Amino acid sequence: MGKTGWDRRDGLIAVHQIQGVGWHTLDRMLRAGWKPDAPVAGEHEEEAGLSVQLSERIREKWTPSFIRHVAHELCQRNIWALTLWDEEYPALLRELPQPPWILYGKGDGSILQHPCLAVVGTRKPTTYGKRAASMLVTEAVAQGWTVVSGMAAGVDGEAHRGALEAGGRTAAVLGCGVDVVYPKHHRSLYERLAAEGLILSEAPPGTQPHPGLFPQRNRIISGLSMGVLVVEAAERSGSLITADFGMEQGREVFAVPGPITSEQSRGTNRLIQQGAKCVLSAEDIAEEFSHLSGWCPVTKAKEETPSVSDTESRLLSLFQDEPVDLEHLAEKMGCPLGEIHGILLTLQVKGLVRQLPGARFERKG
């Protein structure tokens, strides 16, 4: 504790809650000689080039009672914070030119101590993209990777769900506060991540999503990770920003190839042209890190594939990359709708098929 009765961690975390205090403000204040366990002096404000309004706001707000209140409030809401000075701060993230001064989290922070792989992609994936994301994530967590993504609609959500369903580790980095659910339809995924995985953000709790926050979020996704895997991306996809950050940070960049006729694969196909590694399985990713002595992925034993009858096998062979409706399957099999539906129900129980709205079905994995 400093003479003021609080330590520099609590002081830094508290001042970060004040409106207008971001990464650059903290950087300028600390470079000016301010110590977060001591009051801000006039020379600090002048040296840091703070505006009169921000200086007044900090002087008014940043009090011992406010610092205690912030610490208590985070504890009450099960939100933890890591500062750049903490030993537990992720080592790879610390190497960035502008590492977050503070990371806020909900969930199991220890999963960041394992090797991380970023998995990102379009918000509007095709069926092919969803299947590729699910397959690769399942293989990756079996190798020991922690899957990092942004909890966005589309590939991000598929990556998190795939990791959780495979019993693996996954972390979501948000472009808002860790207590804000965005997109709103991902509330159940958010709750599961908080309970079984990890939710992270550089933004103080309560921060609402804003376009300017997402590129900052993307640099953290890639910064935490040893590699960045892009599953599907249009030519102007936001996920390509994450890949660009990865390249700048010296990370390995991987891409899943797709049909040249698919808009959603133009970005990934272009990445491959530019030197990203083409990925057909998680083994393609693992082999890029075989030279590391500190960690080598070990493939876990795969679950046994459920046995299927000849009829079930015939039905499964009718599934391609796109969903198929019930009547089409009945016509191809030459069987009544009721019989086909019964076979499909058995395949769903075995985890080989999933039903979609409109009496359509798709093959899993």
From TrEMBL:
Pfam families, A to Z: DNA_processg_A (PF02481), WHD_DprA (PF17782)
Domain Smf/DprA SLOG stretches: 82-289
Coiled coil: none
Signal peptide segment: none
Family the UniProt entry places it in: Belongs to the DprA/Smf family.
UniProt-recorded name of the protein: DNA processing protein
InterPro entries: DprA (IPR003488), DprA_WH (IPR041614), DrpA_SLOG (IPR057666), WH-like_DNA-bd_sf (IPR036388)
Alphabetized SUPFAM superfamilies for the sequence: MCP/YpsA-like
Lineage start: Bacteria, Bacillati, Bacillota, Bacilli, Bacillales
